[in-house]
Specification:
The protein is of the alpha/beta class and 218 residues long. Helix 2 packs across helix 3.
Length: 218
């Protein structure tokens, strides 16, 4: 794992809260939300997938457990979260590549992945880094490959739920509106960006988004 000196927001907001993160997210339906995201991805044997902002590795482990013939890579800037992810994978006897890094500077060659996932991560990213992250997603996707995004979702006419407002600052959640995310995907040259589903719960509205990399002409 490469070293990085950039600052980042830990998965639980504070390092001391990291042990509480997984049970808290599970209690609020996060595991079910991630399972639904995975169902949308139509993974096949031989696919190589990337989970950006993988945190404690819940989604990466779920992917590898359900699709053992898929190569799974997880990326996160938080070494403490990655250590937990590594222990999860080890306990489950699963082979998962875990790398330290940032989503707006992905350390992978162009056209490396059949699927890229982002699960409850994009709202952590502010300003120009959000656009840069989506450009990097586009860069590492193979031609015709897909990006699957799961995150808190708001619109200009709907405010996030109480718990989501408590978990994350309101300006970050507002920046996760369709009016912001979908144009950024288009600007990153991701094709047909759309919200494909919405779930409501204690976390407020959760949106599922998809977009594809262009198919290179022969």
């Amino acid at each position: 794992m490469s070293e990085t000196s950039r600052t980042y927001l830990p998965a639980a907001g504070r390092d001391w809260a990291l042990p509480l993160y997984d049970p808290f997210v599970r209690l609020l339906g996060g595991d079910a939300a991630r399972a639904a995201l995975l169902e949308q991805a139509a993974l096949r044997a031989g696919h190589r997938v990337l989970d950006i902002g993988c945190g404690t590795g819940t989604l990466a482990v779920l992917i590898k457990r359900r699709y053992p013939e898929v190569e799974v890579v997880g990326l996160d800037p938080d070494p403490k979260a990655l250590a937990r992810a590594a222990r999860k994978a080890q306990r489950a006897a699963l082979s998962i590549q875990l790398d330290r890094g940032f989503a707006d500077e992905l350390p992978y060659p162009e056209g490396s992945f059949d699927r890229v996932f982002s699960s409850f991560m994009l709202h952590h990213v502010e300003g120009d880094a959000k656009a840069a992250t989506l450009r990097e997603v586009r860069r590492v996707l193979k031609p015709g490959a897909r990006f699957h995004l799961l995150d808190f979702a708001t619109s200009d006419s709907h405010s996030p739920g109480r718990i989501s407002r408590w978990l994350h600052s309101s300006h970050r959640l507002h920046d996760n509106s369709d009016e912001r995310i979908l144009p950024l995907m288009r600007q990153a040259d991701l094709l047909d960006p759309r919200r494909v589903a919405t779930r409501s719960g204690f976390l407020g509205d959760i949106g599922y988004y998809q977009a594809s990399a262009p198919i290179t002409k022969a």
